[in-house]
Amino acid sequence: MSAQPLGVRSLPMALRAEIERIILQGDLPMGERLNENYFAEKFQVSRGPVREAFRALVEAGLLEFIPNRGVFIRPISLAEAMAAYEVRAGLFALAGRLAATRIRKEEVIRLRGLVHEMDECIKRGGDGKAYYQANIALDAAILAAARNDRLAQTYQGLVKELHLFRMKNLGRADHMGESNREHAEMVDALAAGDEQRAQDAHFNHVMNARERVLEAYAAKTD
Length: 222
Fold this sequence. Notes:
Elements: H1 11-24, E1 33-34, H2 36-43, H3 47-59, E2 63-66, E3 70-73, H4 78-102, H5 105-123, H6 128-146, H7 149-168, H8 173-192, H9 195-221
Antiparallel strand pairs: 1-3, 2-3
């Protein structure tokens, strides 16, 4: 993958954004050690800004620093993921409730389009990567419709920590089908402006996703 132009942003901030993008696209696995020299050469910068970018990503929860060993993509244990899903469910339920009374017609159209896009991914035989990208876009659109920046920032920070764990456990067409039927219910509730229905649909979706991850994890360890 070619590096993106860093532009005129603060160099450590620009590097952080680029390295985060690489991590969140799943190009590097959990537990992978990151090499300062590699990224310095990749972006044609000194090691200092790369080190600052790494520190910022450690604070964000995407990387971990191990003394005398280096910086690694932070692995997420099953127990950590399950706890994070519970918090995510509460935040997403609130987003759904707020969005039910704040969403605009064009945003509903956008959400329905994303649900259709995910259906097409399933029809293609379970295109997990494309499905996941559309899923991320749907979550972001719902958070935007809630019109609460603090909620969106808190939710997105948590989701970034879960990102690699979610990608690792996605891929079953039956799970994608169940998930997208829940997406459709969420969008229907938002379109109807029903706060309680939207809150319940968003909460149940994340908790059901938690159960699907447990099921997938159990199948892989049998």
